[in-house]
Amino acid sequence: MRKLLVWLTVAGLLIGVGTTGWAVDEDLAGTLEIVHWWTAGGEKEAMDALYEVFRARYPYVSLIDASISGGAGIAARAVLISRIVGGRPPGTFQVHAGAGTIDPYARPGFLEPITFIYEEEGWVDVFPEPLLEMLRFDGEYWNVPVNIHRSNVLWYNKGIFEEHGLEAPVSMGDFFRTADKLKAAGIIPLALGETWTVVHLLETVLLGVLSPSAYTGLWDGTTSWNTASVRLALDYFDRMLNYVNEDAPALSWDEASALVVSGDAAMNIMGDWAHGYFMAQGWTPGVEYGWAPTPGSAGAFQALSDTFVLPKDAPDRDVVIAWLRTVGTREGQDAFNPIKGSISARVDADRAVYDVYQESAMDDFAQDAIVPSLQHGAAASPEWMDDFISAVGSFVAHRSVDTLHRDLVSAAEEALE
Ligand code: GAL
């Protein structure tokens, strides 16, 4: 009998506490609607892994996965704003880290600050300072990061590169030499997609030409847009567009990445969610594909982070807080990021569960100059980003570098005035 009792207790503990060191919380019940935009290969699987961690702890909470497809949250942002302004916020939603991004939600009072959770969970000691800096707004924290993504990555099909005796381009000059060889061999040098992916390309070219501090200065007014260096970057950018697939405007980011997998294209410049996508296609990093900092940007890590928030008047507030706590845990992050392609937002991540690409990203994040991504919310306000997107969208049609430069100068003047 005693033996049986001991056995039952041990079994109960094992079931209750699980491998995460957490007790199962049977008292918390309710519903949590989560709005996010992770519907592509790698993204969806990563979110499922995070849900699993949450469900293991809170079995009586039902999760409503309210995903809105559209890379970079282009479609989700519009839906969210109208729901929030209309007084129908979801339990929580995905938003990029960045003071400019959080401002339009926090300032009008649509969010609750969550500094109290940061204090209770000790997050200021485990999230790295450059990330904490991106997250602070008006003296508070408003969102919990689930990852750190890098945007300035060039991905390449190793089979194609080996067959043609090519190496990952380091400089802009290398890029054009490599692209010419690929073009001559009948291979699309650079896979590209819809407008936001073109903006993504441009932000990496700006970083590749300017120094990290000069690039960062573009967003805070300390670097002028009206300079020969910006012009040079725009000229390179214009030239790069001569090496892309003709159907770029019709492709999503993952459809563009698929061209690299099929071998129709050799390279892709995309954030490291492309790493998650490649893995979801059965590719192994370092085997079928390689990576390098985008041309000219070695030593700089263009960073962004995905986060979740606590909307004011969110239904089932306790459940939302439980979700936010889960997102910030080591377990949650180490379940999500190895699949997503990003690195943990925590400095105490278990390196053993990350792969060779992610280990390189962790090392780079620790030693590189950290600079913000525009297209992914870390650098500027949504208005400035939208002006930028529309200038680049027009450029793809008119291809006048003069006009693009003028448009970007005036967008900056307007944003910084
Ligand atoms: C980014 C987001 C990434 C990834 C990508 C494509 O804005 O931060 O997590 O999902 O969009 O959808």
Give a verbal description of the structure.
The chain has 417 residues and is of the alpha/beta class. It has 2 domains: 2-149 and 304-367, D-Maltodextrin-Binding Protein, domain 2; 151-302 and 374-416, 3-Layer(aba) Sandwich (D-Maltodextrin-Binding Protein, domain 2). The chain contains 19 helices and 14 strands. The protein has helices at 2-17, 43-57, 74-85, 99-106, 115-121, 123-126, 129-135, 158-163, 172-184, 195-209, 212-220, 228-240, 253-262, 273-280, 317-328, 330-340, 356-367, 382-398, 401-416, and strands spanning 30-36, 61-67, 92-96, 136-137, 140-141, 143-145, 149-150, 153-157, 188-191, 265-269, 289-293, 300-304, 306-309, 369-372. A 5-stranded mixed β-sheet has the order 2-1-3-13-6. Bound molecules: beta-D-galactopyranose (GAL). Beta-D-galactopyranose binds next to loops.
Query: Major beta sheet, specifics?
Result: 5 strands, mixed
* CATH architect. name of the largest domain: 3-Layer(aba) Sandwich
Q: Figure out the total of helices.
A: 19
Total discrete domains: 2
Low-confidence stretches: 1-19
Q: Over all CA atoms, what is the radius of gyration?
A: 22 Å
The total strand number stands at 14
Oligomeric description of these chains = single chain
Mean pLDDT: 95
- Fraction of residues in helix: 40-55%
Shape: globular
CATH class of the largest domain, named: Alpha Beta
CATH superfamily of the largest domain: Periplasmic binding protein-like II
Q: Indicate the proportion of strand residues.
A: 5-15%
CATH topology-level fold name of the largest domain: D-Maltodextrin-Binding Protein, domain 2
